Amino acid sequence: MALSSPKCPSSQFALRPSPAPRSQRVAAASSSLSCPPIPRRLFSKRVSSQSRANRRWNVASVHDAARTLPISPAKEIDLKKVENGVSSAISAEEYRDLAGLSTRENSTVSITVVGASGDLAKKKIFPALFALYYEDCLPEHFTIFGYARSKMTDTELRNMVSKTLTCRIDKRENCSEKMEQFLGRCFYHSGQYDSEENFAELDKEIKKHEAGRLSNRLFYLSIPPNIFMDVVKCASKSASSANGWTRVIVEKPFGQDSESSAALTRGLKQFLVEDQIFRIDHYLGKELVENLSVLRFSNLVFEPLWSRQYIRNVQLIFSEDFGTEGRGGYFDNYGIIRDIMQNHLLQMLALFAMETPISLDAEDIRNEKVKVLRSMKPLQLEDVVIGQYKSHTKGGFTYPAYTDDKTVPRDSLTPTFAAAVLFIDNARWDGVPFLMKAGKALHTRRTEIRVQFRHVPGNLYRSFGTDLDRATNELVIRVQPDEAIYLKINNKIPGLGMRLDRSNLNLLYAARYSKEIPDAYERLLLDAIEGERRLFIRSDELEAAWALFTPLLKELEEKRIAPELYPYGSRGPVGAHYLAAKHKIRWGDLSSEHYKI
Ligand SMILES: NC(=O)C1=CN([C@@H]2O[C@H](COP(=O)(O)OP(=O)(O)OC[C@H]3O[C@@H](n4cnc5c(N)ncnc54)[C@H](OP(=O)(O)O)[C@@H]3O)[C@@H](O)[C@H]2O)C=CC1
Ligand SMILES: O=C1O[C@H](COP(=O)(O)O)[C@@H](O)[C@H](O)[C@H]1O
């Protein structure tokens, strides 16, 4: 039985009954609140959801409020209400409701997808926004603007977007009607990324749709990083909200190394405060990554085992069975370490290894993640193996080499594969190798965390198999595809003899839940609209993450270290096996029994 199953789990728009009429609530507020009159101000309505305990009220919105309200956040929380002669503290949510600051009737959210003509916008952002609309998770008054240099009419944008919208398999009802309604709320504005004038025109368009309601604005920077700064400057000067919040989602890559990342952060902070910046790492929005903390902190059977005492090593593995096709130009400036390891895999590692946060609040979780990152030693050359895929012919088809891509220099040394060993220098993880492996054009598409446990001391059944890797438990968190959590255990094969077998206790999501899993971008967009920062990267996390990889990246590039070539569609360079073997480890995804699952 599910503990709770709200329709739109994180949205009050769908969950909460309509509030009392605003006039009544303001009257109630003015008669009972011991605070100065509050200016009309908009907030997104906030969540009160059983399933997301930390969302009881939105501290973020309270902070946003504080910027324009004549009182500090601390004072706000101190506000008292008087009910039947009894005085008690009010929650931030009550505060906003009582003050009439956030009602679905008087607030708007305008979402501008900057770079709307691009790949990510089409593939992920518009479909995610539609899915949220379909699930009634978007506010009542919302408008979506596409912004890019390409010339397009609203109709052309809608045609482009409509090609990538889909309804979930379990949600086919009224699908085309919903799509039409959604597309009717999408508009396009063509402009340059560095033109304040063009953003001022966008501002006018947004205002028309806001129709005098209180204004909240979200800008999604789905553009190459070299133009982030231009857009942030122009949007903040000419198109930010005058009376509500303005937030900016920034896509990765956030810089190329410590210096460029710090420069980007400094640049962004000329126009935005940290709370307005939502640095997205879409892996944090994946269901199984979100579930990591639940698995660990809500199950007594796991938490006590989560340390060097019982865990022999942890493996974070990302593999794709396709190359950089179509994105070679971007990829060649970054390589797999910056593209996947420094962000997606490291974020998963931090969530996996962090200490128990004080609460589920964004800052408490991010504080713990930073501590883990800061406890790690920067990578050295000897901790890493790099590879690059080469052409391979199979079944009469020739798969291209990385350097066959026209946008990639023929002599490129950019790694498309890397394996690394990292250590966390703290009491919990001292001496436990954390292995990472990420590669493109490999034999399979899969992302998983594999936790290999130590062997049982004095194992009575040792004589039935001495291979440590076969006899020890392994917990696998398969992030994608076929989301699953399974635990490899030893058991007796039924029968009169005594033969041991390895079996899986398997939680396969598709078998357990009929509901389709939302795309990571849905969760993250909803969070950004709601001001929930838990799944976004804070600037100090970013700094700590770059500090781990920057010296290595510099050395690889300065010494022009050649990557080991591996055939397209293979299991990657042999060097990765030697690297693991140095630490007496085998890659769990390549062990033969893996393929039985
Ligand atoms: N695509 C993906 O799967 C992923 C992308 N990302 C990140 O998301 C962002 C967007 O990605 P994606 O959509 O693939 O990017 P695109 O290369 O498709 O660029 C998006 C839009 O930006 C404009 N643009 C492209 N190049 C330039 C340039 N040199 N100068 C000015 N404008 C330019 C174009 O619009 P126009 O010409 O109309 O102005 C283009 O349609 C990037 O930061 C990327 O790293 C992150 C994860 C995955
Ligand atoms: O950020 C990126 O992620 C994708 C993989 O994302 P997934 O959700 O499809 O697993 C990767 O292909 C791309 O190179 C990288 O920039």
Automatic annotation (TrEMBL):
<dbReference type="InterPro" id="IPR001282">
    <property type="entry name" value="G6P_DH"/>
</dbReference>
<dbReference type="GO" id="GO:0050661">
    <property type="term" value="F:NADP binding"/>
</dbReference>
<keyword id="KW-0119">Carbohydrate metabolism</keyword>
<dbReference type="GO" id="GO:0004345">
    <property type="term" value="F:glucose-6-phosphate dehydrogenase activity"/>
</dbReference>
<comment type="function">
    <text>Catalyzes the rate-limiting step of the oxidative pentose-phosphate pathway, which represents a route for the dissimilation of carbohydrates besides glycolysis.</text>
</comment>
<feature type="domain" description="Glucose-6-phosphate dehydrogenase NAD-binding">
    <location>
        <begin position="113"/>
        <end position="291"/>
    </location>
</feature>
<feature type="domain" description="Glucose-6-phosphate dehydrogenase C-terminal">
    <location>
        <begin position="294"/>
        <end position="587"/>
    </location>
</feature>
<dbReference type="GO" id="GO:0006006">
    <property type="term" value="P:glucose metabolic process"/>
</dbReference>
<feature type="region of interest" description="Disordered">
    <location>
        <begin position="1"/>
        <end position="33"/>
    </location>
</feature>
<dbReference type="GO" id="GO:0009051">
    <property type="term" value="P:pentose-phosphate shunt, oxidative branch"/>
</dbReference>
<dbReference type="Pfam" id="PF02781">
    <property type="entry name" value="G6PD_C"/>
</dbReference>
<keyword id="KW-0521">NADP</keyword>
<dbReference type="InterPro" id="IPR019796">
    <property type="entry name" value="G6P_DH_AS"/>
</dbReference>
<dbReference type="InterPro" id="IPR022675">
    <property type="entry name" value="G6P_DH_C"/>
</dbReference>
<comment type="pathway">
    <text>Carbohydrate degradation; pentose phosphate pathway; D-ribulose 5-phosphate from D-glucose 6-phosphate (oxidative stage): step 1/3.</text>
</comment>
<dbReference type="InterPro" id="IPR036291">
    <property type="entry name" value="NAD(P)-bd_dom_sf"/>
</dbReference>
<dbReference type="Pfam" id="PF00479">
    <property type="entry name" value="G6PD_N"/>
</dbReference>
<keyword id="KW-0313">Glucose metabolism</keyword>
<dbReference type="InterPro" id="IPR022674">
    <property type="entry name" value="G6P_DH_NAD-bd"/>
</dbReference>
<dbReference type="GO" id="GO:0009570">
    <property type="term" value="C:chloroplast stroma"/>
</dbReference>
<protein>
    <recommendedName>
        <fullName>Glucose-6-phosphate 1-dehydrogenase</fullName>
        <ecNumber>1.1.1.49</ecNumber>
    </recommendedName>
</protein>
<comment type="similarity">
    <text>Belongs to the glucose-6-phosphate dehydrogenase family.</text>
</comment>
<keyword id="KW-0560">Oxidoreductase</keyword>
